[in-house]
Amino acid sequence: MIPLGNSLTRRDIASVLHPYTNLRDHQKKGPLIITRGRGVHVYDDDGKEYIEGLAGLWCASLGFSEPRLTEAAQRQMAILPYYHVFTHKSHEPSIELAERLLKLLPAPMSKVFFNCSGSEANDTAIKIIWYYNNALGRPKKKKILSRLRAYHGVTVAAGSLTGLPNNHRDFDLPIANFLHVGCPHYYRFARIGESEEDFASRLASELDQLIVNEGADTVAAFFAEPVMGAGGVLVPPKGYFDKIQKVLRKHDVLLVADEVICGFGRVGTMFAIETYGMQPDIITLGKQMSSGYLPISATIISNPIFEALVAESDKIGLFAHGFTHSGHPVAAAVAVETLKIYEERHILDHVRAIAPHFQDRLRGLYSHPLIGEARGVGLLGALELVRDKPNKEPFDPALKVGDLAFELAQEEGLIVRAIGDSLAVCPPLIINDAEIDELFNRLSRALDRTHVELRRRATDAEPTAVPRIARA
Ligand code: PMP
């Protein structure tokens, strides 16, 4: 960690309120100041190099130095640096981006609404769903369902959708009419002897029961990330979305696919709804849409929803929703350029070619005594650290084992994400085989060091608390 003598560090502590940070720890430790990026690497102000194993926040798909994106931003800045899309106004970058997205999506979608973040994309989806049900004369059909451990953002509505305790505790969330159903993590939540299919059936019947209990006339929509990202990289069990969608259709409940992490090739298809056979009514996108270079996101709606919005806005006078920076021309131009690069460089073929190696190396770490589960798909994965591997017994959360492994990985020159005691990996899509090897070599060293450190800490208190290391 950066010594506190560093003047940038002192200025940061004096001035910046950090998201997702223990604010007391931050006063002691200070920030890691990143000064530049190149390819899959970033560098701190001491010149130390890191592999960015999470592509920033699951977003920098084209790495940290793509000149075409810089040039696209410069070009658009010089032509029209700002304009909006309210009140019948428009501009070329937002039109071109919307057209390209509609062409790229596998499902028949009708219109694209632009926002600046994934949270806003989901908030917009919720407001559209409420407006839609009012338009259809169903004022009671307003409850929104999502899953425990889901991550859909942090604004008041998106934060209510999110199913993680830290996003609710002391923020007075979730607000009313947001309900959470079971998390589809087979390793953690399947019953003994339950197959993946049986587990999926049980979750679908729990969903069915909840909708029946609440009254189908009060339940509007179900939000789901195809693969849950910030909840721990949780891949759905076999048959899950087929079974869930049957229940939703039966009760006339809309499906919203949150593709904010999965979209644009992350799981090996352009959108993860293809991989998992999802037919959503609304799709939300963000992050890799601009390779994370500028803030832009989208809420994409089906034609029946659009038609209802048209009728209602005509009846009441306005569809009064939008942000100052909805469809910002520079962000949109960078997103258009990002999509062009994905196509020209066959990014999907690249992901498909290297994902098996990525998954092999990830799953290879399952042999480590600390790893209870190695899971993932495409260029997305996680390792779950456990105290007792055969019994899947987790560590005491107070030990903060995930944080320890995260810190040691950083010392080894690798940035990952600790989600409780899971370590998430989600590198830039442009990563190559040699860089994948280096990423997992560093991760492996960090796990060994975590293991040694845990044994050292446990020696006095409880000599058998941590399994013996089974390899060099
Ligand atoms: N949905 C998903 C699936 C996400 O992973 C995230 C962010 N990690 C969001 C929504 C929220 O996006 P943002 O942070 O841009 O508001």
Detailed description of the structure:
- There is one protein chain.
- This protein is of the alpha/beta class.
- It has two domains: 32-65 and 347-460, Aspartate Aminotransferase, domain 1 (Alpha-Beta Complex), CATH 3.90.1150.10; 68-344, Type I PLP-dependent aspartate aminotransferase-like (Major domain) (Aspartate Aminotransferase, domain 2), CATH 3.40.640.
- It has 17 helices and 15 strands.
- It has helices at 7-15, 23-29, 55-58, 67-79, 92-104, 118-135, 156-161, 165-168, 186-189, 196-214, 240-250, 272-275, 303-316, 329-344, 347-364, 401-411, 433-461; strands at 34-38, 41-44, 49-52, 111-115, 143-147, 178-181, 219-224, 254-258, 282-285, 297-301, 371-377, 380-385, 414-415, 417-419, 422-425.
- It has a seven-stranded mixed β-sheet with strand order 4-10-9-8-7-5-6, sandwiched between helices. The chain has a four-stranded mixed β-sheet with strand order 1-2-3-13.
- A hairpin with a 4-residue loop joins strand 2 and strand 3.
- Helix 4 (67-79) packs antiparallel against helix 14 and helix 6 packs across helix 13.
- The longest helix has 29 residues, at 433-461.
- The two termini are 27 Å apart.
- The mean pLDDT is 96.
- The chain binds 4'-deoxy-4'-aminopyridoxal-5'-phosphate.
- 4'-deoxy-4'-aminopyridoxal-5'-phosphate (PMP) binds next to helix 3 and helix 6.
- 4'-deoxy-4'-aminopyridoxal-5'-phosphate binds next to helix 3 and helix 6.
The order of strands across the largest sheet is 4-10-9-8-7-5-6
The CATH superfamily of the largest domain appears as Type I PLP-dependent aspartate aminotransferase-like (Major domain)
Characterize the main sheet.
Answer: 7 strands, mixed
Class derived from helix and strand content: alpha/beta
Mean pLDDT comes to: 96
Write down the overall geometry.
globular
Query: Number of helical segments?
Result: 17
CATH topology of the largest domain: Aspartate Aminotransferase, domain 2
Q: Please indicate the percent range of residues in DSSP E strands (runs of 2 or more).
A: 5-15%
Quaternary structure of the protein: single chain
